[in-house]
Design goal:
The structure is a single chain. The protein is of the alpha/beta class and 410 residues long. Helix 4 crosses helix 6, helix 8 (243-252) packs parallel to helix 9 (262-277) and helix 10 (301-323) packs across helix 11 (334-343). Helix 9 (262-277) links the parallel strand 9 (255-258) and strand 10. It folds into 2 domains: 5-174 and 227-408, Alpha-Beta Barrel (TIM Barrel); 176-221, no CATH class. The chain has helices at residues 18-24, 32-51, 75-85, 103-116, 131-137, 152-173, 200-206, 243-252, 262-277, 301-323, 334-343, 352-365, 382-396, 405-408, and strands at residues 5-10, 56-59, 90-93, 96-97, 121-126, 179-180, 185-186, 235-239, 255-258, 290-297, 347-350, 370-375.
């Protein structure tokens, strides 16, 4: 038996004294002094997590949150910096919002990070759900954002997302590519290729075969560099209530990352194994799958309520709730909202003993090779955060043995 691989995902949240403090300091996301200490303290956390045996450190891609929620516009820069400061821990993002991204640029950027980290990079991809920034950053594709499964926006967003993820995989693994999608093409224009390329002779004779034809037209593109890992880094995909997403992950050998309740995961964990078998990958339950939870490990049960109030209530009530109606939002008072958070199925907390019990119960239903723990840092102070991570790694994690996935499916 082995232990799950732990990923720490920090949502960079400018700290305030609750919702009222955020309003009193409106536009706090503009504060460069605050970001200065956050981004450097972040590196200290990464180094500490490496010493604690954490498998991976991740961040997000979110833009334009002037109110100070989730200031994470460029995960690649952070990943490259963390790689330069560490030796063992894996670095990545959960993840690049591909419906707003140029797949070639993502392939290039992530391949470089993979080399800088000597193969310690993992790539996360996501669909995006906030029109406030996805419509702006992704305007070249007029991409929609969605949180409603099955809506027209959802279907179109998925089409763009899946097209570009498959293009990313091709750019990493194929010597040269022609990307003929409904929303992106390369070379462009795809019908003619890029005509009259001035340096066509050397590109034809020294470049990859087929890139440039005898008429001096660019007909294919070779995306360089290729990743350090062969054939590519592991790819994690954020999923939520979508069997289509599970099938897409299984088809392309991607790791579903469940932003879902334990009950919701149960069916999808088995669906992934069934679908992967159709493509010749025989997995056991939980293998190549990633569970996401917001944890707090506290000295007393009452301290769990305090941490939810101080570190999570503001963003839960004002950002998560409006976007995700399946998160309970019936409470009016702070105490009622705290109970909503506990009832959501996404948070696991309490004392060490309570946390062990809850995690064991969760793993009895849905084992997972990876666990991603999300913290609202720096709303939660660094020392408090690291104390919780240490307790999870030393007290809770040893109670969560899973099969040796390297041999279980043989």
């Amino acid at each position: 038996m082995t232990l799950p691989k732990v990923i720490i995902q920090l949502y960079p949240m400018f700290p305030s004294k609750g919702e009222q403090g955020r309003k009193a300091n409106r536009g706090m996301g503009n504060n460069s002094d605050t970001y200065q200490w956050i981004v450097h303290e972040w590196t200290e956390i990464v180094k500490a997590c490496e010493e604690l045996g954490v498998w991976g450190m991740a961040t997000i891609e979110h833009h334009l949150h002037s109110e100070g929620y989730e200031i994470g516009p460029n995960p690649g820069i952070l990943n490259a910096h963390w790689a330069s400061q560490t030796n063992k821990i894996n670095v990545g993002a959960l993840g690049y919002v591909m419906a707003t991204r140029d797949p070639i640029r993502v392939a290039e950027e992530t391949a470089i990070i993979d080399h800088l980290s000597n193969g310690r990079f993992f790539c996360g991809v996501a669909r995006g759900y906030q029109k406030r920034w996805t419509n702006i950053i992704g305007q070249f594709s007029d991409t929609p954002a969605t949180t409603i499964h099955g809506s027209d926006d959802d279907k179109r967003n998925r089409e763009i997302f899946e097209e570009r993820v498959e293009m990313l995989l091709k750019c990493w693994t194929e010597e040269s590519v022609r990307l003929e999608g409904n929303h992106y093409q390369a070379p462009y224009p795809i019908e003619t290729g890029i005509e009259n390329y001035p340096a066509w002779k050397i590109a034809r004779d020294a470049g990859v075969i087929g890139e440039v034809d005898e008429n001096g037209t660019v007909q294919r593109v070779c995306v360089v560099p290729k990743p350090y890992q062969n054939p590519r880094p592991p790819v994690f995909v954020g999923v939520n209530k979508s069997p289509e997403g599970i099938r897409f992950c299984a088809k392309n050998d991607l790791i579903p990352t469940y932003f879902m309740t334990t009950e919701g995961m149960t069916e999808f964990v088995d669906l992934y194994v069934e679908e992967a078998a159709k493509y010749g990958r025989h997995l056991v339950r939980g293998q190549k799958q990633n569970m996401v939870r917001w944890p707090h490990i506290t000295k007393t049960p009452q301290d769990y309520d305090r941490k939810l109030l101080e570190y999570d209530l503001d963003i839960y009530k004002n950002l998560y709730g409006p976007f995700f109606p399946f998160w309970p939002q019936g409470g009016k008072s702070d105490s009622e909202h705290i109970q909503d958070i506990k009832n959501s199925g996404f948070f696991i907390g309490g004392t060490v003993e309570e946390s062990i019990q809850k995690w064991r119960a969760t793993y009895e239903q849905v084992p997972a090779e990876y666990i991603t723990l999300i913290f609202h840092w720096a709303q939660q102070p660094k020392e408090d955060l690291l104390e919780e991570i240490e307790l999870f790694m030393t007290k809770v994690l040893p109670e969560l043995e899973v099969p040796d996935y390297a041999t279980a499916a043989e």
